Amino acid sequence: MYKVRVLRTTAQWHHRLAVQQRFIKQLTSAELRVQFVDYFEKQGHTRVKSASLIPHNDKSLLFTNAGMVPFKEYFMKPDTAPFKTATSIQKCMRAGGKHNDLDNVGYTPRHHTFFEMLGNFSFGGYSKKEAIQLAWRFLLEELELPLARLRVTVLENDEEGYQLWKAMGLPDDKIVRCGMEDNFWSMGDGEGPCGPCTEIFWDTQDKSLDDPWLEIWNLVFMENYRTADGQITKLPSPCIDTGMGLERVASVLQGKANNFQVDQFEHLISGIRSVLGKRNVVVPSSEDPNAHEKIIADHFRAMCFLISDGVIPSNIGRGYVLRRIIRRALRSAQQLGINEPFLTDLYPHLLDGYKDGMYPELSSRAASICNVIANEEATFLKTLNRGLLLLNNVFEQPDLQQSKVIPPQVAFQLYDTYGFPFDLTLIIARERGWTVDMQAVEALQEKQKALGRESWKADDLADKSRLAEWRNQAILPQFTGYDHALLHQESQIVAAETIHKGKKTELVVAIDPCPFYGLGGGQVPDTGFITLANGSQWKVTDVFQPYEGGIALKLASPKGPKEMQKQLEEDQEFLQIGNLVRTEIDVNKRQGAEVHHTATHLLNAGLRAILKTDIVQAGSTVEPKKLRFDFTYGKPLSNDQLYKVEEWINEAALSGGETNVQHMKLNEAVDSGAIAAFSEKYGDVVRVVEVPGVTKELCGGTHVDNIRKLYPFKILNETSVAAGTRRIEAVAGLSCMEWYRQSFMPVPDLLKMLRANNTNDAVTKLDKLMQQTRETQKRLEHMTEKLATAGEKIVHPVEGIYNNIPVRVHLIDPDLDAMFMQKRANVLKESQPEYAHLLVNKNTIVVALNTSQVQEHTANSILRHILKHIKGGGGGQKEFAQGRLAEAILDEETIKTRLLPALKAQ
Ligand code: SER
C-alpha cells in the first residue's frame, strides 16, 4: 500500500522546501529586473526610468508609493500619455499616509519602508484579459514557477475577472473571492484613480507561518476615479496598473523565507554584523537581534535612497519621515549596544548590493548622502541618552506602574526637547508593555503649533484648481525673460480668470510670450506692469507656475483694492483672450535678483572649495537685495572659513567671467561636473548655467551676464537652521555697496564720541568703557545695598577735643568710598555745626568744619596738626580737608589710641 510520509518537524519541512527549491529557477535581483523589463518591452511596452521618491507631479502624496504614481495623470487622460503601454521598476516608499509599513518593519518577514516595484501599465491600450495573460505567462513561462504553488484572489462580484482566470486554466479552488478591503485598490484615502484588483499569491509551504500564502503581484483594473467627496466615478477608458514587489519575488526565486535574506540585503546584513562585531556588541538576551538588524538594514537603505532624491532631515513633511527613519535605526542600534556613530560605515555594504548600476545616484551622491546621515546621527546621539533616562524615570514611578501609560507631557517633551519621534516613544513603550495616549499627545501638539511642527499639508494655493483648466487647454506661454532685450515687449493675453475669495477679487492672466519670471528655484518672481490696449495699467504683483509649462500673472489695480472691481468692469473688453498688452518689468528688482542668483551659485561652489566637502543644498532664497543659502554641514563655520569663502568669491568676481547657458542631456551635465539639487525635478534636457572654471550648475533661473557684477560680496551671517543644516545670508554687488554705506555711515560720529583715531582704537576704547561701566554698576549695587542697611550699622562717633573745640571722629565703613565720605562730611558739618568732624576710612581722613560757628581754626589747620603726629599727607580749605595716613584706622580702638592723642598733642 502507498504510504504518505508525514512531515512532523519544522526541520523536516525545511528540508522538503529546500529539495523543491532546486527545481525553481534561481535568479538574482539584478537578473529579475532585467528579465521583467525585457519581457514587457518585447510585448511592446515602453521602458520608463524610475521617477524620484518625491512625487513632483502630485501634491497629495508624501512619497511615490507605487509604480503607478508617475503615471497618475495618464489614467485620467489616456490621450495625453506619450505611450499606450509602459513598464518600469519604480523606487517606492511606504512610510506615511495610507500605505505606511513603518511599524511592521523588522517584525514581519516581508515589510519594508523602501522597496522596488516591478510594474506594467496600460493607458487605454489593453485591458483585463491581456493584463492577466501577460502576468500569468511571465510567472509560468519566464520565471517558470510551478502552477501548483500559485493561486489568485478576485473582487467578490468581479465575474469577468473570475472567468478570465478560469480561462487561464485555474481550477475554482484556486480562485478566491474577496471583499473590497482586499481587492479594491486606491492610492490614498483622497481623490485619485482606483479600481478592482486581482492578486496573485505564492504558496511558501512554510508550516511555521500562520498564512503560508505570499502575495506577489497585484493587477489593478484601473476603471474608476474617486472624487474628493468620496464618489466613485468611471475613468474615460479602463487602464491597467500592476505592481510586484522585487524583494518578494526574489525571495521566491532564491528560496528564502524572509525578504532580508535575499541577495539585495545580504551585503547589508553582513555589513551590519561586521560593524557590530568590530564594536564587540553583546546583544541583551531579551532582545531579538534579528529584528533590530532588519530594522537597521531596511531603514538604512530607505534613508540613503531618500537623501539621494533630495530629502533632508527636518521637522516637517518628508524631512520628518526621514528623521524618524534615521532615529529609529539609531535606537535599534542602541538596543544592540552601539552608542556611537556607525551608519556611514554601512554605506559600502549598501553599494555592494547595487553593483548592477541600477541606481547610479547611490555612487555619484555617496559623499553627500553620508554627510547628511553623519550630521543627523551626531545630533541625535547627543540627546538619545538623556531622553532614555527621562523615559526610564517614568517606568520606575510607582503611581504610573498601575496604568502603564506614559504621560502625554513626557511623550511631548521627548519629542520637543530630545527629538524623539512619537513612534520611537511608542516602540520603547511597547517593548516594556506600556502605552501612550496619542490622542492626548496630539492635543498637546495642537497647542504647540506655533512651533511650526505641523505635519505634512498639501500646498493649498486655492487659485491653482481654477487654473487647472488652463492646463487642459494647453496654455503654455513661452518664457522670454532670459533675454533682457525682451523685458518690455508686446504680448497677447492667452488666458484670464477672475477669482473671488470672500470680498477679495483676484485677476490672474497668462500672456504669451511672457517675460515675467516666476519659475521658482528660490528666485523671487518679477513684478511690474502690463498695459492694456486701452492704455489702462495693471500691476503684476505675483508670477507663478500653476503647472509645468504654465506661467500665471496675478494682477492688481494700481489704484488700490477698492478700485479693483471698477477697473475690471472698465477693462473687461481689453482683458479678453487675444488682446494685446505691453509688458514692463521692474528692472532694478530683476537685476538685483540676478546678481544674487549668480552669487548663490558662486557661494555653493566657494563653500565646496573651502570646506573641501560635498555640501548638499537644503534650500535657497534669491531676493533683489540679498540671498539666503541653506546647506548641510555638521558644525558652525569658523570666521576664518567664512572669510576664505568670501575671498574666493570676491577674487572670482574681480577676475570676471561670462555666464554661459547651455542645454544638455541630464546625464551629460552631471557627468561634466554640474551641480544638481537632488530634490529638483529635471527633464531629460536640462539648462546648465556655467561660468567656466568657477561654477557649473543646473538651473532655470535668470543670471548676470558677467560675474564682475557680483563684486563686492559679503557674508552677513552664518547660523544654524536645523540639526546639521547651516544658513548663510549674504549680499553682492550694488546691494553690498549699499550695505557697506549703511554700516559705515555712523562710524565718524562713533569715533568722535569715543575720541578714537580709527575703528580698532574705538573697539579698544569701547571695550574699556564697557568694563568700567560694568565695574561701576557692580559698585553701585553694592553701595546701595550698604546704604540701605546703614541705619542698623551706624557707629556712634568717638568724642574728642582739639584746643577747646569739641571733636567727633566718625569711623566710616571701609566699603564706602571717598565720594561717600565727602558727602557725609557735608551733611555732618551742616547738621552738627558746633563740632569739628573727622571722618576716617582706612587710610583716608577727612576734616570738616563749619566756620560760621568755629572761627579759631580751619579744617586744613586741624589736618596739618594731625599730620605732624601721624605720618601722611594731604591738605584742603577752611571747611574741608582731606588726607592720606600712612597707617590705616580700622576701629574705635585705634581712634582712641592714635587719633585722639594726636589731636591733644602740642
Ligand atoms: N498600484 C498597485 C499597488 O501598489 C499595483 O501596482 O499595489
TrEMBL record:
For this entry, list what GO says about its biological process.
Answer: mitochondrial alanyl-tRNA aminoacylation
Reaction catalyzed: tRNA(Ala) + L-alanine + ATP = L-alanyl-tRNA(Ala) + AMP + diphosphate
Q: What is this protein called?
A: Alanine--tRNA ligase
Q: What's the chief localization of this chain?
A: mitochondrion
Q: What is its EC number?
A: 6.1.1.7
Q: Which GO terms describe its cellular component?
A: mitochondrion
Keyword Isomerase annotated: no
Any Pfam family the entry gives: tRNA-synt_2c
Q: Which organism is it from?
A: Lichtheimia corymbifera JMRC:FSU:9682
Instruction: Name the encoding gene, please.
Output: ALA1
